Predict the 3D structure of the following.
Amino acid sequence: MLKPNAHYGDLQESYLFYNIGQKVQAYLDAHPGAKLYRMGIGDVSLPLCPAVIEALHQGVADQSVKERFHGYMPECGAPFLRQAIAAHYEKRGVKLDPEEVFVSSGASDELGDILDLFDRSSTALVLEPAYPAYVDANIMAGRKIVHLAASRENGFLPAPTEDLDADILYLCSPNNPTGAVFSRAQLQAWVDFANEKGALILFDAAYEAFIEEPDLPHSIFELPGARTCAIEICSLSKTAGFTGTRLGYTILPKDLQRGGMDLHAMWVRNRTTKTNGVSYILQRGGAAVFTEEGQRQVMENLQVYKNNARTLMKAMEQLGLWYCGGKNAPYIWLRCPGGLSSWQFFDTLLQEIQVVGTPGEGFGACGEGYFRFSTFGSPEDTEEAARRLVQLLGKN
Ligand code: MLT
């Protein structure tokens, strides 16, 4: 008789964004035709930029011609895209062998898949509040999880302490959900800690393109020592609007060894077994993001989201609500007003002003009492949501 994976019984009944979707659907069922202002899940509202669309069309055209047709793609990524990403890193002073770049179908898929490299007895450290998939993927694998609480006092950027005992260290900067960004010195402390303990950092860089301040690191590989202790997982979802198109990449240095095993060689072995590569057409579209014109266009789109962030931050200031994020990140993390719990605040905003956000508690227990707004909506919706927030909360 088949034995199912009993660790699924340790998960919460359903996933955060699924729960929110259910609540929103229930509201719409009760209020047919209601207009909602969606600032919950970080899903983009702008279309792909023209350079990407053109490259996607070219990819389709190539597939229609015998001489340019592609069948199975190389499992670890098309050389043209691996080289384009390596060249992009080099502009930031990070030298990579293109073979250290693995093309993926997105960061969330990869954050789960990469766990194949680690023994199930290894312990995962999650700095909470955190993207809930870090926790769930490790629960599914039956791993022990250590939670390190981030708080307002440490700027939601906790530092490693000597007594921390964990093997896989999840770091996300700019952070989802708090928008906090590690400085070079803060990130260096984690790199040094990982090297000293023989631990490994899984660095989620999905929001790096939102960094505005010149001294903040975009990649963990900007820091000395990272090549022997880190894997970086990145995505074009937020940078270039690929949430529905699906494309990402992972940087896994050839220097990375643990227990006498070569993690780069292991990941090549994994990918060549478990995938047949990402579609040629998508990789053509992805490569366009790293051209000069592509970069100019995606940055233009990000400016729209940054303006949304300013609109919401202005509303927070008007209301005197404590918040962080919004500057180098597309999320605003705020304290719920009037001592409301995060789900109470969620319900109030949905029922009273039809604004959808994300309750902080969904990112771990220490997110209770906080709330997250995404800045990826349309400017019109964001402005209206800000106006409604000020009107509702300014009354008290
Ligand atoms: C979020 O809202 O936290 C993200 O958009 C979810 C994701 O990237 O999967």
In short: Residues 11-40+294-393 form a domain with the Aspartate Aminotransferase, domain 1 fold (CATH 3.90.1150.10). The chain is about 40% helix and 15% strand. The first helix runs from residue 16 to 30.
